[in-house]
Amino acid sequence: MRRILVLLLACAAFVHGYTGSASNWVTAQSVFRAAGYGSSELFAYEYNSYGSNIANAQGLASFVSRVKAPTGASQVDIVNHSMGGLVSLWYLKQLRGTANVAHLASLAGANHGTTSAGACLIFVTCQQMYPGSLFIATLSAGDETPGTVAYRTWYSPCDGVILPYTSTVLSGATNTYVACENHLTYLTDTSILSQVRAFVSG
User: Fold this and answer.
1) pLDDT of the residue at 168
2) 20 to 30 Å CA-CA from 88: which of 16, 40, 46, 97?
């Protein structure tokens, strides 16, 4: 049986970043469908970009449960971008979601925070995303890649939003250096998205 892709994939689930939406994943879904995924196997999770990433992770937990029920999948694959990395990792580490997830693919994930969040500190999510926050400290403590989940990240010095760009790297993951990729073009770069699709299908 295929795994589910969480979009935070199968099933695949895709999890967007700060101020993003399900529409961010149109190209990714096309790449997955071209490789044999059905539209009923691709799901996009939307959350509040301005509230709390703890609440967003709780919402992701509920979303994964709702995806699994009708599809019959025992696990999903999660593909995230930017702040979606924080939502996904909190779900896996703090909400014990690892049993429900086979693969985690993080595109330019703000996994250890980003100083660019300093521009939006009036919002809780940005406070949590700033390096050194209690949220980041809690998330980074202990095993960064828990459970039997397969973890892979993509990161680039040309990102421009994740600062430092190495914030995406997770200890214990397959960390993929991309020579030069803009933060937003990860969402439309079919070469990288094909790598993601191959990873979660492996």
Assistant:
1) 98
2) 40
